[in-house]
Amino acid sequence: MPTANPIKRTNRIAIVVVVLVLAVVVVLAKTSRQPLSDPQFAAKAAQGSLAEVELGRLAAQKSQSETVRAFGERMATDHTKSKANLEKIAAQQNTLPEDLDKDAQKNYEKLSKLNGPAFDRSYAQDMVKDRKKDVAEFQKEASAGKNEAIRSFAADALPTLQDHLKAAREMKDLSDRSVTAVPNLPK
Predict the structure, then answer these.
(1) I need a labelling partner for 166 at 20 to 30 A (CA). Which of 21, 85, 121, 122 fits?
(2) What is the pLDDT of residues 148-185, one digit of tens each?
């Protein structure tokens, strides 16, 4: 039985090690984002508020659930106020976006095609996911932002966002329970 060439085997091991190291580097690069700069945070917060207003209005129109409609109306109201506060702060320093970003527009279009329980379920899932992300970003800005006005805005908005997350989780739980009670609905 021929023996494997030790040089070829060493080369294969080296290639596997290099591939694994590169995979780890890619994963770390994707998961360890640098904090947003203050202007980036302000722009992202403004676009987020725009999206929440539009999605909240959509929820008020399309939802079958009173809980989802009420949550959507609250999101529209709270984020209209939040965006107005941010505009006052940023007026001297930044120009804020006036349109939804590409991802928010795509999400709006996806949700606008749904109705009733399918809308409620998808909206609730999206709201929990987005609220978690928003809370984390606002916590970072509130603790590490360089611009005092924007840092204060983030700190002031944080309790409302945390309350939104709690309400979104409750809404999702209700939506999940109502879906499991109705047969033949995809989950």
Answers:
(1) 85
(2) 999 999 999 999 999 999 999 999 998 888 755 444 44
Among 133, 134, 119, 127, residue whose Cα is nearest residue 61: 119
Burial-class residue 170 by CB neighbours within 10 Å (0-12, 13-18, 19+): middle
Integer distance in angstroms from the first to the last C-alpha of the chain? 56
Amino acid 115 reads: N
Q: What band does 111 get if pLDDT is binned at 50, 70 and 90?
A: very high
Burial of 154 (0-12, 13-18, 19+ CB in 10 A): buried
**pTM (two decimals):** 0.71
Name the residue with tokens 């940023």: 90
| Enclosing H/E stretch for 60 | helix 38-62
Place of tokens 């399309």: 62
Q: Are 47 and 56 in contact (CB under 8 A)?
A: no
Tens-digit pLDDT profile for residues 37-72? 888 888 888 888 888 888 889 988 888 888 888 988
Taking the C-alpha atoms of residue 146 and residue 148, their distance in angstroms, rounded to an integer, is: 6
